[in-house]
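Handout, section B. The chain below has 378 residues.
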Amino acid sequence: MPAVDRLPFVSSPGTVVVKVGTNVLADAAGTLDAERIRSLADQIQRARAKGWRVVLVSSGAIGAGVGQLQLGARPTDLPHLQACAAVGQTALMQLYQTALAPHGILPAQILLIASDFDHRTRYLNVRNTISTLFEYGCLPVINENDTVSVAEIKFGDNDHLAAMVANLLQAPLLVLLTNVDGLYNGDPRTDPAAVLVPTVPHIDRGITDLAQETKSALGTGGMKSKLKAARLATAAGGAVIMANGSRDGVLDEVLGGEAVGTLFLPHGEGVPALKRWIGYTARPKGTLTVDDGARRAIAEKGRSLLPVGVRGVAGNFGKGDLVTVVDAAGVEIARGLSNYSAADAARIAGLDHGQIVTVLGKVPYDELIHRDNLVVVR
């Protein structure tokens, strides 16, 4: 798809989530580039002066720790990675504080783990904290809490974290600053004919097949992770722009509506806050497999999920927990909050109202998942 006019996406300043990767902030040895951080701080100030509420999702703690500890390479085992994060996070925030001080901006550190987004109360607390920081004129600087994260509670990378923050804040724009100019239709490192893709209307299989493994020794993400993050944000109604953060002034260009990087168009309608959490943020605790009739009722007619359409129950979830809904082929079609525990859902799967009374002695809910608590995911 050819380039489209960027101005409609930036003409009305609102909340913008800016994610900057380790490879933008640090050199190959992991040493943080103070001049690059100063340039980013200057651009953030100019964005704020135009009315943007900026949230910065910043990688760099582990990479900085590698440099501070003079390790020469990123460790591979969890304890040493967490030690690097503990050392590097301090250095990272000190540099942001120094760079922002001339503008009178206070950086506010927020360290998160994936379970903060799974728990509805903690999720809302994060949003309330960021909103209050905006009131004080602070710059929220968010990173994963790598000092305590383990495989079970990690986001995976800060691209995914940034998309979740964008959904949390219902931000209309997510900017991914990386060390490449955007998405190419080939590998520019080996293919001289590869060209930048200026606009992506929908992230389908053809787009994901373009992703190259560009992850470096310092970073945790690559092009595939950025496409996953972009898909998460655009499905919830936001736009995403991926651009080269190593270029001075690139954020100015992005927010000025210039055709830099790759624009991923929103392909989902604006999703209410609760449904953003259900469909695109919290992690499911179980799976419900449904028949074709239930699939059509959910995906095509916007109806609730009734027990009679359920053919399988997996996982260990309680009443009110998030579950994923898949069809007979295992393809995810929706996510929602279950009205029944896994044990009771398994007992009533495939049954109609009268049969449920016989099994449970009562029917507390006609729906296994009510449509108000159900989000179709595409």
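Note. The longest strand covers residues 15-20. Compare this with the example in section A.
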